[in-house]
Amino acid sequence: MGRIIRSFIQDVPVEYLPLAERDPVTFARTLGCDPVEALMPFFTDRDALLRSIDTDKNNPFDGISCSFSEEFVCRDEFRRYMHVDLGYKRDRCGLAMCHVPRGVSVSRDVIVGSDSFVDRRPLPFVQFDFVGVIQASPNIPIQFDAIIELIHRVAGELGFPLVLVTYDGWQSISSVQRLNREGYLAAVMSVDRTTKYVVLDVHEPQGFREESTNGRYMMPWEGYRDLILDGRVRIPFYNPCLHNRLNPDVTLYEEESMHLEEDVKKGKVDHPPNGSKDLMDAIVGAALSASINEWGIPERPEDLRRVSKQTKEVTKSRREDKFNVNLEREDKKQDMDLGLDDVFSDSNPVGF
User: Fold this and answer.
1) Are 281 and 94 in contact (CB under 8 A)?
2) Where is the composition biased (Basic and acidic residues) (predicted)?
3) CA-based torsion, 29, 37, 222, 268: positive or negative
4) What is the value of pTM for the model shown?
5) 3-state secondary structure at position 17
6) Per DSSP, what are the bridge partners of residue 109?
7) Cα–Cα distance between 335 and 341 in angstroms, integer?
8) Which of 238, 97, 244, 205 shows the shortest CA–CA distance to 158?
9) Where residue 11 falls among pLDDT bands split at 50, 70, 90?
C-alpha cells in the first residue's frame, strides 16, 4: 500500500511516508528523482498552485497594449484592492487587482511544540479580477503616468470600486502622492521585506493607517501560500511564459512561483539570478490588502496556540462552574428534604 504525494509521484512505500509527508520537496528530489526548480522553494506544492488557476476564465488584461478586454466591466459591489510593483530599472511593472467575494470554512491541524489541536474558522476567499506584467520598450522606461491612467480607467470607465492602491518601492512615492491628490487612497507597501501593511480607517485624515508587521517580514508571502494550500484563491489564466522555450505552455504565474526561493536569514522571498517575480509581487501585495481589510490579520501558530489554551481554560472553568452548580443544587435538594428553612437566607446563598 502507498500514497500519492505529488501528481507525478505515485504509490509511496509506507516506510517512506513520514519523510514524504514531512518534506515532500526533498523526498521528490532525492528519492523520487524529480528535480525541483529552486534549492529552497517557497511554494512546494505545484498541484495546489495549478489548482489556483481558473482555466475557464481568461485574463482580461493585455500587458502589450496595456488595455482590457471589452467585456471587462464591474458587475458587483465588492471592494477592490490593487498592488503595483515597479521594477527597479523601470523595465517591467507587475500589477494585480482582487476582491473577497466570500469566506470559506477551513480546518487545520496546528502543532506547536507539544501542543496540538484542530483549528477551524472561516477565512477569506480571494478572487483576482486581473493580473499582468507591462514590459518596457527597448531603451524606453515604463512611464508612471501610464499606470495612473490605467488606474483611472479601472475606477472610472470600468466602474470598479477601487478602495486602495498600494505601490511597492520608494520610486513610487510621486505616483502615490498624485493619486492621493486625485482622491484615491494610495500608499507605499513593500512586499520584498514587509515591515508594515495598510489598514483602511475612516477616522484617519488620509483614510487609512499603517500597522507594523512586528517582524513578520514575509507576511504577504506566507498569507498567499496559505491561500494556495487552502484552495482559497483563483487567478485568471494568464499568457504563457514566452521565454520558457522548453515548455511554452507554462504560464508566467507558474514560472515565477515555482522558481521563488526562501531566504530564511534575510527573511524574504527572492527570485533566482536572471529570474523575475514582478507578477507575483503584485499578486501577493493585492491579496494581503484584500485579506486584511475584508477579513482580518492572519494569525501565527503561536497566536493559535494562545487562543487554544485560552479556549481550554475557559472550557475547563465552565466545566468546574457547572460541576459546582450541580453540587450546590444537590445540597439544596438534600437541605429541602431535611426541612431546613435557612437555605435561602442571605448568609447562605445558593449560586445557579
Assistant:
1) yes
2) 299-336
3) positive
4) 0.74
5) helix
6) 118
7) 8
8) 97
9) low
Q: What is the largest CA-CA distance in the chain?
A: 101
Cα angle: 62, vertex 66, 70; to 5 degrees: 60
Question: What contacts 302, CB < 8 A, 6 or more positions away?
Answer: 112
Q: Which helix (H) or strand (E) holds 335?
A: helix 301-338
Q: Which residue has the higher pLDDT, 29 or 41?
A: 41
Q: Is 106 strand, coil or helix?
A: strand
**If pLDDT is split at 50, 70 and 90, which confidence band does 17 have?**
low
Distances (CA, A) of 279 to 96, 181, 191: 8, 27, 12
Q: How many other β-carbons are positioned within 10 Å of the β-carbon of residue 215? A: 8
Least confident of 98-112, 193-207, 242-256, 323-337: 323-337
Measured over the CA atoms of residue 243, residue 249, residue 253 and residue 257, the dihedral's sign is: negative
pLDDT digits (tens, 9 = 90+) for 55-81: 999 999 998 889 999 999 999 999 999
Burial 4-34 (b: 16+ CB within 10 A, else e): ebbeebeebeeeeeeebeeebbebbeeebeb
Report the alpha-carbon angle 189-190-194, nearest 5. Answer: 105
Nearest C-alpha neighbor of 57 from the set 127, 104, 123: 127
**Type of residue at 208:** F
Give the single-character DSSP code of 21.
H
Amino acid at 110: V
User: Are the C-beta atoms of residues 19 and 27 closer than 8 Å to each other?
Assistant: yes
Local confidence band at 6 (pLDDT 50, 70, 90 cut-offs) = very low
Rounded Cα gap, residues 211 and 219, in angstroms: 12
3-state secondary structure of 127: strand
Contact 78, 103 (CB under 8 A): no
CA dihedral of 103, 107, 109, 115, whole degrees rounded to 10 = 80
Q: What is the pLDDT of residue 118?
A: 84
- Is 289:225 a contact under the CB 8 Å cutoff? no
DSSP assignments along 280-313, one per residue: HHHHHHHHHHHHHHHT-PPPPHHHHHHHHHHHHH
